Amino acid sequence: MKLFNNTVSAFVVAVIFLLIVPLPTWLLDFMFIANLTISFVILLTTMYIKESLEFSIYPSLLLITTLFRLALNVSSTRKILTNGGYAGEVVKTFGEFVIQGNVVVGLVIFLIIVLVQFIVITKGSERVAEVSARFTLDAMPGKQMAIDADLSSGLIDEETARTRRSKIQREADFFGAMDGASKFVKGDAIMSLLVTFINLVGGIVIGFINNVGTFQEIMQIYSTSTVGDGLMSQIPALLISVATGMIVTRSASEANLNEDVIHQFSSQPMVLIMAAIAMSMLCFIGFPIPQVLTMSAILLILGLMLMRKGPEVVPAGEAPPVTEEVTSEADYYKNIDNVYNLLNVDQISMEFGYSLIPLVDEASGGNFVDRVVMFRKQFATEMGLVFPSVRLKDSGQVNPNQYSISIKGEQVAQGEVLVDHYLALAPDPDHDTLEGIETVEPAFGIAAKWISEDRRVKAELAGYTLIDPTSVIITHLSEIIKVHAHELLNRQEVNNILTNLRKVNEALVNDTVPTIVTVGTLQKVLCNLLREGVPIRDTETILETLADYGMTVKDMDMLTEYVRQSLKRTITHRFAEAGQLKVISLDANIENQIMGAVKKMETGSYLALEPQTIQGIVSATTKEIDKIKDLVATPIIITSPIVRVYFKKLIDQFYPNTTVLSFNEIDPDVKIQALGNITVA
User: How far apart are CA 99 and CA 317, in angstroms?
Assistant: First the structure.
């Protein structure tokens, strides 16, 4: 087997020697036959493959076969000029069969074949290869992002993504190579014309010098051998040119060329019948009646047979074909699998009114999909979660300028934007003098105005913040995803996170999951972190902490608290500004009341406070938050570690966006500035 592994290398070396070493005529005949055979095999291979990458060696093979033909041209030219015009039986037979005693006819046929190859096939193949290479390279970024989106949404695994990326790279390399390799065929056609001219002129001159015979005898000898040699090089070259055109025009398909041609022509029997009628009309303008009627009859019979055959009958036990025509909704749902498809719920979906479709449709120049992809990258970098793909669809249920956002099939938000307008946010809401359509910014509920393009410059000079419609929708979507991130983290995504962590710390994952904590437990802890806006990117630290406490602590809230304390650097950087944390402290008396009301159970613990106590704590909290609402965007309340989780659950019912931290979750390097203290009289 090792000997055969070097066959191609040995063949290329032998071809190079053909340019120098004279060959006996019997061996030259064998080489000509081998060249013709190889060309036929290559042509048939390109017709039976389903996509170009199945014959990825073709660019290199094109160079080798071109070099082989040129080497045979040189060897045959040497024989023609030194052996009285005799270059073997193959060349002689080809020349005599084509010329048949007429030199001019033979040369004209040879010239036509060369021009057909050079002008029609080679030129077209070269252009197709160039365009295919350009479009393949231009489409690479979009294909890569599509693979990343499928991978992040769990539709494919890492191995499939790697295979698809490799295929995209191979396609780009293949068509790039074909763009250059097609020049070999073009150069080969030009070289054939030159060799033919040299053989004919050189042979005539040598014939006169050696006194081979009369002018007619010399012309007969050397024109026969020249045409025979030219055809023996150009027939294989023509086959290779056709193969080149086949492979660069071959799109991905589920079948080979023969099956595709038969299926696609036979799918329209009425076309054959109409063609038969049109062909029969040619009899009235003088075309030969027997031939025309024969062709018309063949087309008519084929068309009628295909019409009578109708749709294929599916054998019992086999699934119906995917392309089965559905004539009604009832017929479609007779297949129970189609009913089950209705049960699938999209993690994130958006519906758009028809006026907003140009913002989303890439064919209309919309860049909404690209913006979502870039936000997914940003969100994954910040929070450590790759949210699934967003399903986009138009809907007649919403107003033309409205859109809605749904999480797991249920609408959670709705907004309205005006295409070709800008959302203007005033620098000072009390002095908003700009004319426009009043509205509310959907993501944060800020008063704003929609202004037209002609007021844009005036608004910018007045200090207004202008936001285009696409950015308004993206901002709204991003805020919704941040709020509902804990709902989007399912067990499939947790497995994806663990798979990614295994690449850098396989021992930690194998020792912790599922030995100490299950995937379900890990999911609940991660969801608790995301619910309060804590990034889960440092999965290694999270698993290390769960490995330390998971065996003894079964309360999910307590496990989460231990993890939060391990992530104190992440939490501090998340909520601190310029190395400073502005907070409201919680009075010790309130903390004691909360701890005294904690009731522990086997499955966890809960808070059992009197309604009057709860009202007092909430009122005191409201009072302190109102004092600092103009100083900080998000109020932060700091408590002792043991109280934090219970106070957070209590206050979430009234202030869901309030951040509650414990002292153990704050980095010692950060300065804490107390802006107030929650106390109950």
Answer: 62
